[in-house]
Amino acid sequence: MTVRGVILEDLLGLDTYSGGTLVSIQSVSLAPLTLKYLKGAKHFEDRNLYLAEFLREEGNGILHVISDSPDDCFLNYHLRFLERSLNLAHGDLNNRVKFLRIPILVGEALTQRILESRFEFRRLEAALHSLPNPILDFWVTGPSEIELASRLGLPHVGLAGSLLGVDGKSSARRVFRETGIPHPTGREDIYSLSEVQEAVRMLARDSASESFLVKINDEEAGNGIAEVSRTVCDGSSVAFRSNMEISKSIPLSEFESRLSEVGCVVEERIVAECTANPSVQMQISESGKIKNLATHEQVLSGHSYSGSIFPADEAFRGILVSAGYEIAKHLRSKGVRGIFSVDFLATRQTAGAEWSLHALEINVRKGATTHPYFWTRILTGCQYDEDVGVLKGPSGEVVYVSTEYVHSPKLHHLTATEIIDLVRSEDIEFSVSRRSGILLHMVSSMQAHGKIGATAVANDHRGAFRLLDRLRNSVSNLAATAV
Predict the structure, then answer these.
(1) Do 175 and 157 contact (CB within 8 A), yes or no?
(2) pTM above 0.70, yes or no
(3) What does the alpha-carbon distance between residue 372 and residue 374 come to, in Å, rounded to a whole number?
(4) Burial, 473: exposed, middle or buried (Cβ in 10 Å; 0-12, 13-18, 19+)?
(5) Separation between Cα atoms, residue 272 and residue 79, nearest integer Å
(6) Which end of the chain has fewer CB atoms surrounding its CB within 10 Å, N or C?
């Protein structure tokens, strides 16, 4: 395959596109509870500048439509890495990468703002004027993204409007059942707490699980999840409701309202002596070609994602990829296109036992494991070897560890410039010659939430973890001196 083919097929699933302008609108269009209770969601735009890999083909350009969140210093930091990695002259990059900032309100998605403001919509139309062969790319495709593409009269990458919701929790359970992929015992398409209680009562008869999880269909990132003990399933509805432990301390009234609107699933909570949280990333190209992109082990804090390790453990890596292909074939038959991931729970009762994998959910969108993967490929020049599930380059394999939570109580006193300068001065910034180091992938969350995101690339996981430890210590020390 040509370099161009690798770029467009792996990055965007485009295997027939002739090139032109990628209009990158990485709007964080999430379900209401997730958007309200996920700290730092507005700042996820920081993470997606890896899309500049699209520029590797001569003549291609990018229009990044962004909010007021990303810091100019941070944008320049990433562009400097891209110049070096793509071997582009500074002037060339400036000519081919454009930015359009559109201010948004707290809790507002970028595409929502563009649709609701005639002024901002016209600004976007003007920016698109005369751009060659534009195609839209979104972080996630939802109703607002489909409407925006329609109003602009432009094609978009990935999911069609008729397939929205194909990755909801209930839909995912049906996919797992139809493909024969093991998944937790449960029930789907439930629309009231009384139905939830009845489902728990029925599941308790067939499962030895001590508790059960209630997952709202379209909520993500640990939001819209409640745990309930089997001991209250036969009690009154009042006792049942009062004993629901809802993640993120979301009020029961909000949880119930959203559940009744979009539905939920109820599943047994699987407990084991040894557990892991792996995922597999797949791509279905516009022509229907299926490709495995990566496997990861996710690091969770409760039900929430906080980081990832690439690649997943070799002990279950092959099972992940096989399941990913089966699910991809099924989704392809429904017309699904674009990048998606499947999250699993891996369990075993003793350290030497075989792992069992249970599929949990499907996400047809870019996720928190997408950006460290493509950034690492860009920075190192490595290619993914599907046969063994690793990134390989001329001088061997590389791995990485990525985190969304390098934090400190006083981090909000620092600026993006200070953090970037700190990484350079500590000599832990990614080095092309060493093929290792730290890339900061999210910094604008620092002021509001006291955290930043970083990816550590190295030849082995021990080296990657050492880099992250050095970053955390350095950030803590600097923050401690802040006024």
Answers:
(1) no
(2) yes
(3) 6
(4) exposed
(5) 45
(6) C
Look-up of token digits 């201010």: 103
Query: Residue 459: left if φ>0, alpha if ψ -120 to 50, beta else—which one?
Result: alpha
**What are the beta bridge partners of residue 99?**
64
The sign of the torsion formed by the CA atoms of 86, 287, 390, 2 equals negative
Count of beta carbons in the 10 Å neighbourhood of residue 239: 13
C-alpha span between 229 and 210 (Å, rounded): 6
Query: What Å distances lie between residue 400 and 23, 87, 377, 381, 453, CA to CA?
Result: 29, 23, 11, 14, 13
What length does the chain have? 483
Give pLDDT, residue 367: 87
Backbone φ and ψ for 278, nearest 5 degrees, come out as: -80, 165
Q: From the CA atom positions of the chain, what is the Rg in Å?
A: 22
Tokens of 46: 């920081």
Phi/psi of residue 345, each to 5°? -115, 125
Give the residues across from 308 on adjacent strands: 298, 402
The answer to whether 398 and 391 have CB atoms below 8 angstroms apart is yes
Residues 6 or more apart from 130 whose CB is under 8 A from it?
none
Q: What is the 3-state secondary structure (H, E, C) of 110-156?
A: HHHHHHHCHHHHHHHHHHHCCCCCEEEEECCCCHHHHHHHHHHCCCE
CA dist 177 → 171, 184, 187, 267, 358 (Å): 10, 10, 12, 14, 12
Taking the chain (483 residues) in consecutive chunks of 10 residues, what is each chunk's mean pLDDT? 57 86 92 86 84 84 92 89 80 86 88 96 96 94 96 94 94 97 97 97 93 95 93 94 93 97 97 94 95 95 90 95 98 96 95 92 93 93 93 92 91 92 96 92 87 96 97 93 77
Three-state secondary structure string covering 33-84 = HHHHHCCCHHHHHHHHHHHHHHHHCCCCEEEEEECCCCCHHHHHHHHHHHHH
